[in-house]
Amino acid sequence: MSQAAVLEHPGVEPAESPLTPESWGKLGMWIFLAGDAMSFGALLAGYGALRYSSGDWPTPSHVLGIQLTAFMTFLLICSSVTMVKGLSAIQHGDQAGLRRFVGLTILGGVAFLSMQAYEWTHLIEHGMRLSGNPFGASLFSTTFFCLTGFHGCHVFGGVVYLSCILVQALRGRYSVTDNNPVEIAALYWHFVDLVWILVFTFVYLV
């Protein structure tokens, strides 16, 4: 609404800008996630091309620990649920619920990283390297470590990000009307979970 119209009708509030600081934050995160999705898409496409052009690609279920990774996947999905619960808690003014559920989400991420470190250590002890693989094509281990490592970096970044959110929550930073940073962090964490489901499916199961 123009300034003249506001002066002419003093009882009418001017319309808010369609892009508020809150929406700018969400837009920034969506743009980042879109670019990140293309990075993961390129890595998965490269993995698929290398796999189907190789004559001695090992069967993933014969090399990788499917049961452990399935549990890791379940744990990451559960952490996404706790993130939803945390956001819902602060949207209803429940400060303690926010702190509790964000803390559980962080614990889920730390547990995931710990199990991934165990998996990597086990595979390295059995001869898998970035440039070598005793089970078949050497590019199998190269693509495995690149894909899971790239995702692991995102989980680590998410744990640090949510830890900062938790510190602010402990200080009473967020409220019913001021919870946009929590929502933006939740977008990132859900993206990390979704990408892992794709990585797990294409690298471990297919």
Structure write-up:
The protein has 206 residues and is mainly α. The chain has one domain (21-205): Four Helix Bundle (Hemerythrin (Met), subunit A), CATH 1.20.120. The chain is built from 7 helices and no strands. It has helices spanning 3-8, 21-52, 60-63, 66-91, 95-125, 138-170, 180-205. The longest helix is centred in the C-terminal third of the chain and has 33 residues, at 138-170. The radius of gyration is 22 Å and the shape is elongated. The termini are far apart. Mean pLDDT is 89; it is low at 1-17.
Summarize the structure.
By secondary structure, this protein is mostly helical. It has helices spanning 3-8, 21-52, 60-63, 66-91, 95-125, 138-170, 180-205.
Termini separation comes to 56 Å
Query: What's the count of strands?
Result: 0
Give the CATH class. Mainly Alpha
Q: Enumerate the spans where pLDDT stays under 50 for 5 or more consecutive residues.
A: 1-17
Number of domains: 1
Radius of gyration: 22 Å
Architecture (CATH level 2) name: Up-down Bundle
- Major sheet description: none
Q: What is the succession of H and E elements?
A: HHHHHHH
CATH superfamily: Cytochrome c oxidase, subunit III, four-helix bundle
